[in-house]
Each structure stands twice: as structure tokens, then as C-alpha cells.
């Protein structure tokens, strides 16, 4: 089990799904966490789920990552509170209202901008601020998707945004390697999160991709959190510019 004792890690999308599960894993392995999400009330519930008592190793901030000013202020607050930054887990993301429904000819400008504003532009704001503040030898882990590795029909905006995440990850890794900072991405497949259940895909059987998955089940978010923990730890000191799939072999 990878230890994160003494490391300070910032984490976006911490209030639910993969973000909350990852926060629990990182905290259990000794990390101090600066958590952000869009809503303060959801963050308060998440904080209670991570630690049943008040902890100096947890700080929460309501942040809209689509605002570069809010992101910069959050990262500055993190460094001021803990004294430094060692790692970042960028999990926040959206799928849009018409995921799996609208094809490209039906996509509105508003939906395209909303998805890219969070998944790619917002991620860029986070990575930029985190790399400016991070100590040498740190690690950034971004959340892509299997749809960032292959195109899926009726999924153009989301897929394009996640392809962008992988490209940004590779570029950043080439820029900060001399500082011994690693930048990697995780590409989840079908994960048991509110995002997946929000459009009823699992319950209704709309996801025919199970026919392509050698391990034919939904992945639990804690399984993704374990990979985040490894990539943020010193056990992965020579791994960078890589994208790791957690998809049961769907894209293999």
C-alpha cells in the first residue's frame, strides 16, 4: 500500500463519486487534503464522511473551477494553510444534459461550452496554478476517460474534452520533468458514481459496452482512488506522461 504520509494534495470534485472516494483513500494513507467542489454544503458532508472528527489534515473550499481567479485563490489558500503543495488530483468533470442522446449536429453551443469549460478549461486553470505552487518532485493526476481514448457516438463534446485532457497531461509532463514533477492521467470506464446513474444507463441497460468488457461489471470508485494514490505516491517516481485505464479491459 502506497504511503502518502506528510504529503499535501489538492483535489477537485471532492464532494461525490470518484473525487470523494479518492479523498477517502488519500486521507487513510496519511495525506493532508485541500478539497474543493462547487457547493460548500456538499463539501461539508464529504468532509464528515472522510473524517468523523475535526482534522487539521482537511481543509475545504467552494470553487467553480471555470473561474481562474477562484482556482488561483484556492491553490494560494492551500499553500498558506499547509505551507506547501506536493500533489494534485483533478477529478471534477461534467457530462452534460444530452450525453448519449444528441449527436454532433444537435449539440448546442451552450452545452459544448459548459462541458469544455469544466472538463478542459477548468482543468487547465487547476494544472497551471498547481504547477506554479508545487514543490519539486510532486505529482499531478488528471481525470480523463475511456472516451478520451476512443470516440463514442452521441458523445462528441465529452469525448473531445477528455481527449484534450490527455493532450494537456502529456504536454505538461514534458515541461516539468526537469523538476521531477510527474503528470499523468487516469481514464475510467464504467464507474459506480452519481454521474453514471444520473442518466440511468446502468439501470436501463443502455450501456451496451458491457459486451466489450472482459470483466463485465461496474467498477467501484474506490478502485480508481487506489490508482490515484499510487500515482501520487513516491512509488511512481519514474512514471509520467502516461494514461492509465481503469475500464475492465474495455479499450484493450
From TrEMBL:
It comes from Mytilinidion resinicola. GO terms for molecular function: oxidoreductase activity. Keywords: NADP, Oxidoreductase. Gene3D superfamilies: NAD(P)-binding Rossmann-like Domain. InterPro entries: NAD(P)-bd_dom_sf, Sc_DH/Rdtase_CS, SDR_fam. Belongs to the short-chain dehydrogenases/reductases (SDR) family. Pfam families: adh_short_C2. PROSITE patterns: ADH_SHORT. CDD domains: SDR_c. This is 3-oxoacyl-reductase.
Amino acid at each position: 500500500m502506497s504511503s502518502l504520509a506528510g504529503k499535501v494534495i489538492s483535489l477537485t470534485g471532492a464532494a461525490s463519486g470518484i473525487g470523494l472516494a479518492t479523498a477517502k483513500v488519500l486521507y487513510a494513507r496519511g495525506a493532508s487534503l485541500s478539497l474543493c467542489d462547487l457547493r460548500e454544503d456538499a463539501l461539508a458532508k464529504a468532509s464528515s464522511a472522510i473524517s468523523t472528527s475535526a482534522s487539521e489534515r482537511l481543509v475545504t473550499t467552494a470553487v467553480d473551477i471555470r473561474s481562474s481567479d477562484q482556482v488561483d485563490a484556492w491553490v494560494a489558500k492551500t499553500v498558506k494553510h499547509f505551507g506547501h503543495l506536493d500533489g494534485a488530483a483533478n477529478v471534477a468533470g461534467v457530462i452534460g444534459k444530452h450525453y448519449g442522446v444528441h449527436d454532433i449536429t444537435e449539440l448546442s453551443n451552450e452545452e459544448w461550452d459548459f462541458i469544455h469549460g469544466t472538463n478542459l478549461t477548468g482543468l487547465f486553470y487547476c494544472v497551471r496554478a498547481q504547477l506554479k505552487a508545487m514543490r519539486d518532485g510532486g505529482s499531478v493526476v488528471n481525470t480523463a476517460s475511456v472516451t478520451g481514448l476512443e470516440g463514442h457516438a452521441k458523445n462528441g463534446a465529452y469525448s473531445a474534452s477528455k481527449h484534450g485532457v490527455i493532450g494537456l497531461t502529456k504536454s505538461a509532463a514534458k515541461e516539468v520533468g526537469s523538476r521531477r514533477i510527474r503528470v499523468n492521467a487516469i481514464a475510467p470506464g464504467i464507474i459506480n458514481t452519481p454521474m453514471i446513474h444520473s442518466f440511468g444507463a446502468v439501470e436501463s441497460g443502455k450501456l451496451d459496452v458491457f459486451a466489450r468488457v472482459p470483466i463485465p461489471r461496474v467498477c467501484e470508485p474506490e478502485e480508481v482512488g487506489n490508482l490515484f494514490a499510487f500515482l501520487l505516491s513516491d512509488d511512481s517516481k519514474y512514471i509520467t506522461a502516461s494514461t492509465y485505464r481503469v475500464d475492465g479491459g474495455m479499450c484493450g
